[in-house]
Design brief:
The complex is a heterodimer of chains A (461) and B (189).
Chain A (H helix, E strand, L loop, with lengths): L6 H7 L2 E3 L6 E4 L2 E4 L5 H10 L9 E4 L15 H17 L2 E3 L9 H7 L8 E4 L13 E4 L2 H10 L1 E4 L3 E8 L8 H12 L7 E6 L1 H4 L3 H9 L8 E3 L4 H8 L4 H11 L12 E6 L6 E3 L7 E3 L10 H10 L14 E4 L1 H4 L2 H11 L9 E4 L4 H9 L2 H8 L2 E2 L20 E4 L14 E4 L2 H10 L5 H6 L3
Parallel strand pairs in A: 3-4, 3-6, 4-5, 6-7, 9-10, 9-12, 10-11, 15-16, 15-18, 16-17, 18-19
Antiparallel strand pairs in A: 1-2, 2-8, 13-14
Helix pairs in contact in A: 2-5, 6-8, 13-15, 13-16
Chain B lengths: L4 E4 L1 E4 L6 H4 L19 H4 L22 E4 L11 H8 L4 E4 L4 H9 L3 E4 L2 H9 L4 E4 L4 E4 L2 E4 L4 H9 L3 H6 L2 H12 L1
Parallel strand pairs in B: 2-3, 3-4, 4-5
Antiparallel strand pairs in B: 1-6, 6-7, 7-8
Classes of the chains: A alpha/beta (461), B alpha/beta (189).
Chain lengths: 461, 189
């Protein structure tokens, strides 16, 4: 009988072009996503060597990181304009489809590829962005790469890679109302640590994962890199197929459906590492430090520092050990990013903001992940809910997740953010970031302080 | 870029989880070039909000200039995939990092640029960081030595070969074009 294989092994084996003893594998990349910040030096390398793009039809480019979330181009920012113009010129020269700023298909790379049906089970996907792990939600092997590797994929459609170790994160039970995939992601990272998945590709399994929507699975897989894992994945099932059925041609869908059952870990497949969580025990999670692993239940207290890193983090965050986390004053709230900028995330935030007002003095940015999400949200009346509540409704982009596009906070300000990183200075020098779900972000916007969304859900506006 | 051996001063940054946002903050990524990122390296650690050098930062200590070896805490280079972090370190003059562990993408990026990422247990890193004088790094012998301490490190043979010989990974892949074409043809049928 053949050895049972993990989903990772199946995906890997299906894409090995060459494996020579003592060398990393030559791995084929099915879909290559490009953006303006990590691609210019790669295209320059091709130009310098006189190389063509091997498979332009397997590339998809967008502008997201350096783009403003106010309408139009960053015309006042020469450096950002140069990056956008360079990407446009490179895509024209090599025949790569580009969704430029303002166009109907524009948005954050990890939002537009799934919503347009480009991301499918069984694929390998690479992008010069660490949150490429998002696409693993479809049973694909998707991981971030550096710019030298972007050049390799452009020129050869391949990468030199060692096979990661398969790691299982099994989540039993069901998430309680008010507790989301983002909370689960933060709980996983808090459990296994910021390097708990280093060298591994995580497969999320169990009833709680199966019960997640595709949007939820994308939020969960997105955060895998924050536990050190380059890839996170969920095996495709009926939820995956239903999502894809609405986005593919009948012929494309038929092919995906026929192969979907292959992309599962076999019974008895062995994982190098395992972690187990019970979803039913989880509360909404927020971070209190400067690593996504420094997270706790919103109902909890700021912990006593366990080491020098904790001490430094609490000093940066200006939080006192033993203080209740809920009730901490908030200056700004950001809802958006490749983690939580999808329609379901906006519906969740709008659900709490409907008929309520943002607390005085709190600045709230709601940034859809793509033009398509923006159109959907406007058609559903969500944009109006945000505006009436006193939040700013913006154009799509990475916005305050990376703070290199005009959206940032001031030194010392505390931001409750649905993004993925609370590193020092991530949202601007000296800015204190608290990672949270869209529900917790919305509840905190209304309360003016970090708040448990379940308390608002219990009361009518 | 080839690497064989080196002797230099040391920058000790014993913090764990030094992410690539610390190595180069995102606002410095608005470039289409690999060069000129030295000023951006560890910018928000080196500089106070008023733009003056932070005297508490080890990078501003006398003797930091010209140090080509960083000794850091675990999970160095975690976070963003930005290769700019490696380019910024190189522009600062850093050729070697010694740490208990690395972010996976950073490790790959380092290798592609001839920056040597050596893995040693935390205790050994601490001893090396605490010892005085220059550090000697020898990739041929897989050895680092400083003061009275000498440690052997392991590195995957392919990575070591690439560093010693300056192997061009893109060239290596281009040489596999026939296999890539065969793979593509095999999938169509």
């Amino acid at each position: 009988m053949p050895e049972p294989k993990t989903l990772l092994d199946k995906l890997w084996d299906a894409h090995v072009v060459a494996n020579e003893p003592g060398c990393p594998d030559v791995l084929y990349v099915d879909l290559h996503l490009l953006h303006e910040v990590t691609s210019p030096q790669a295209f320059a390398e091709l130009a310098g060597r006189g190389l063509a793009v091997r498979r332009p039809e397997r590339c998809l480019a967008t502008m997201d990181h350096a783009t403003p979330t106010t309408p139009g181009l960053p015309s006042g920012d020469r450096a950002a304009m140069t990056q956008l113009e360079t990407l446009a010129a490179n895509c024209r020269r090599h025949g790569i489809v580009l969704h430029a700023v303002g166009e109907s298909g524009n948005g954050v790379a990890h939002v537009i590829a799934p919503e347009c049906g480009h991301t499918r089970p069984g694929m390998t996907i690479a992008c010069g962005d660490s949150h490429t792990s998002t696409h693993g939600a479809f049973g694909a092997l998707a991981f971030g790469i550096g710019t030298s590797e972007v050049a390799q994929v452009l020129a050869t459609q391949c990468l030199l890679q060692y096979r990661p170790q398969p790691m299982e994160v099994a989540v039993t039970g069901r998430l309680a109302p008010g507790v989301t995939a983002k909370d689960l992601a933060l709980a996983v990272i808090a459990r296994i640590g910021a390097a708990g998945g280093t060298g591994c590709a995580i497969e999320y399994r169990g009833a709680a994962v199966a019960a997640l929507s595709m949007e939820g699975r994308m939020s969960l897989c997105n955060m895998s890199i924050e536990a050190g894992a380059r890839a996170g994945m969920v095996a495709p099932d009926s939820t995956t197929l239903e999502y894809l059925r609405r986005r593919l041609t009948p012929a494309q869908y038929e092919q995906v459906e026929a192969q979907a059952t292959c992309w599962q870990s076999d019974t008895g497949a062995r994982f190098a590492k395992s972690a187990h969580l019970d979803a039913a025990t989880l509360a909404p999670m927020v971070t209190w430090g400067t690593s996504p692993a420094q997270a706790a239940a919103v109902t909890g207290r700021v912990p006593e520092p366990a080491n020098a890193a904790d001490e430094r983090a609490l000093c940066y965050m200006k939080l006192a050990p033993g203080a209740a986390i809920a009730g901490t004053k908030v200056n700004a709230v950001f809802v958006g990013s490749c983690t939580n900028g999808r329609i379901e995330d906006l519906r969740a935030a709008a659900g709490l903001l409907r008929g309520r007002r943002v607390a005085p003095g709190v600045r709230v940015l709601v940034v859809p992940g793509s033009q398509r999400v923006k159109r959907e949200a406007e058609a559903e009346g969500l944009a109006q809910v945000f505006a009436q509540a006193g939040a700013q409704w913006r154009e799509p982009g990475c916005s305050m997740c990376i703070a290199m596009n005009g959206d940032s906070a001031a030194p010392g300000e505390l931001v409750v953010s649905t993004s993925n990183r609370n590193f020092e200075g991530r949202q601007g020098p000296g800015v204190r970031t608290v990672l949270a779900s869209p529900l917790t972000a919305a509840a905190s916007a209304i309360a003016g302080c970090i708040a448990d969304p379940r308390e608002l859900e219990r009361s009518q506006p | 870029m080839k690497f064989t051996m080196l002797e230099s001063g040391v920058l000790a940054m014993p913090r764990a989880d030094i992410d690539t946002d610390q190595i180069i903050p995102a606002r410095f990524l608005k470039t289409v070039d690999r060069k000129g990122l030295g000023q951006a390296a560890f910018h928000d650690w080196r500089m106070l909000p008023d733009g003056s050098p932070n005297p508490a930062c080890p990078l501003n200590a006398p003797g930091a200039a010209g140090a080509a070896v960083v000794i850091a805490g675990a999970n160095f280079g975690c976070g963003s995939s930005r290769e700019h972090a490696v380019w910024a370190l190189l522009a600062l003059g850093v050729r070697v990092v010694i740490a208990p562990s690395y972010g996976d993408i950073f490790r790959n990026n380092a290798l592609r640029n001839g920056l040597l990422a050596i893995e040693l247990p935390g205790d050994d890193c601490a001893l090396l960081a605490g010892a005085g004088g220059a550090i000697h790094v020898d990739l041929q012998r897989c050895e680092v030595a400083r003061g009275g301490y000498r440690f052997r490190f392991t590195m995957d043979a392919f990575a070591r070969h690439c560093l010693l010989e300056g192997v061009d990974a893109l060239g290596y892949l281009l040489a596999r074009s026939p296999a890539i074409a065969a793979f593509e043809a095999g999938r169509k049928s």
